[in-house]
Design brief:
Radius of gyration: 30 Å
Shape: elongated
Oligomer: single chain
Distance between the termini: 44 Å
Number of helices: 24
């Protein structure tokens, strides 16, 4: 007869007794298998030992071939010792398929009557900070969040939400979803420390920029700047995101005002970023006689990190002034500025914009097949950061071209657009 699923009221002694009888083992037989004195086994089964040591129970479980998760769940029913629960939690970190089990042990730890709620939350929070596996770290923060929410412990609700957000914001395919979820933290910022607030506002500002929420970016970055009195790298990057947001909103006076502050930061990326931003600002203001020479010179002077953005900006200018020859010359050097191993939402976005501009140029000169092919490459890049807005804009741009040009919408183009959609959904899944 097989043991039924554990009844939540069953003690560890009852469980061991059941299995010992099923396997037709005497106390002496189990003693031989485990090396544990039969008197100890007897007291555990009879319930005289209310809280047997975890290592003892593990040894018995191994001898009786009890599934690991079942013995842990049963053991948790009567275990309140905080140190023992942390011992179990630490051990199951290496157990395969441990996600739900980790959360069960963490919750039991918080429910233990031996410690004050905030003390247990703090200890679990510290434990989570040292966990290497990202999905397990998130699992622990989720327990902290829900327990804190249910018990009105706002400090650890805020801390848990922040740490979970700082991990999940790195998943480029969920940028929009993670940004929306992070809005809850805004209700609990009063419960965060000054340093936590600074980190949150700056990271939210960068996140808002990457999801094209430019007004949000400016708002969050300003919140962080008002709190941070040091010249940190994160503050410098927040300034740059804010500058780019002002540029997208066509507030060029604010771009130049913030650039004056940004250029004072002493980080390696600042000088190049300031140069290209000033040149692009001239281009956006249609001061092409200044912008074009600057951008062309920067294609040779600046590091590879910026060359694709410079190329994209130049193509846009050349399209505006109908200088197709200069675009063709630029595209001949494509291998010199395309990133080899793109990382981060900014780089994927830059690649997507470049191929979009290249596609617009190819359609303009009648290279329809090549143009749609460039749009597919653009969508491939944007798909890595879930660029659904860009996908819709591409489709509109392509259909507008066919309507205006009166060209036949051939089957091969339909198949290419199907590929565009499949690439997007594959990357976003």
């Amino acid at each position: 007869m097989m043991v039924d699923k554990i009844n939540t009221r069953q003690t560890i002694g009852d469980f061991i007794f059941q299995l010992r009888i099923e396997k037709n083992l005497t106390y002496s037989g189990l003693e031989e298998l485990t090396g544990i004195n039969k008197s100890v086994l007897y007291r555990i089964e009879r319930g005289e030992t209310k809280h047997p040591e975890f290592k003892t129970v593990k040894t018995i479980a191994s001898a009786l071939k009890i599934p690991y998760q079942e013995i842990i769940e049963c053991y948790l029913e009567d275990e309140n010792r905080i140190d023992t629960l942390f011992e179990i939690l630490n051990e199951i970190m290496t157990y395969e398929g441990n996600f739900s089990l980790v959360q069960k042990v963490a919750l039991r730890l918080l429910q233990s009557p031996g410690k004050e709620t905030e003390e247990s939350l703090q200890r679990l929070f510290n434990f989570a900070a040292n966990v290497k596996e990202v999905f397990l770290k998130v699992a622990l923060y989720e327990v902290i969040i829900e327990y804190s929410r249910g018990h009105g412990v706002m400090v650890y609700l805020a801390k848990g939400l922040l740490q979970k957000y700082l991990i999940e914001r790195l998943d480029f395919k969920r940028l929009e979803q993670t940004y929306q979820e992070s809005q809850e933290i805004l209700h609990y910022t009063d419960f965060l420390s000054r340093e936590e607030k600074i980190t949150f506002y700056f990271r939210m500002g960068l996140h808002a920029h990457n999801t094209k929420k430019y007004k949000d970016c400016i708002k969050h970055c300003n919140e962080g700047i008002n709190l941070e009195n040091r010249d940190t790298e994160l503050k410098a990057r927040a300034y740059l995101a804010m500058i780019n947001s002002y540029s997208q909103l066509k507030h060029y006076d604010m771009v130049e005002r913030c650039l004056d502050v940004f250029e004072r930061f002493e980080y390696a990326f600042v000088s190049e970023a300031a140069k290209i931003t000033r040149a692009i600002t001239k281009a956006r203001k249609k001061e092409y006689e200044i912008a074009i020479p600057l951008l062309r010179s920067y294609m040779n002077e600046l590091s590879n990190n910026y060359k694709i953005s410079i190329a994209t900006e130049l193509i846009e200018i050349y399209l505006q002034i109908n200088d197709m020859k200069s675009i063709a010359e630029l595209l001949e050097k494509e291998l010199e500025f395309l990133p080899d191993n793109p990382e981060g939402p900014h780089t994927h976005s830059a690649i997507g914009l470049y191929y979009r501009q290249k596609g617009a140029y190819q359609l303009e000169i009648g290279l329809v097949y090549e143009g749609i092919q460039s749009f597919v490459l653009s969508m491939n890049a944007f798909g890595k950061i879930n660029g659904s807005k860009e996908r819709d804009e591409f489709m509109s741009q392509i259909f507008t071209y066919f309507l205006k040009s009166n060209k036949q919408f051939e089957l091969q183009y339909i198949n290419m657009l199907k590929e565009l959609y499949s690439i997007f959904y594959w990357n976003c899944s």
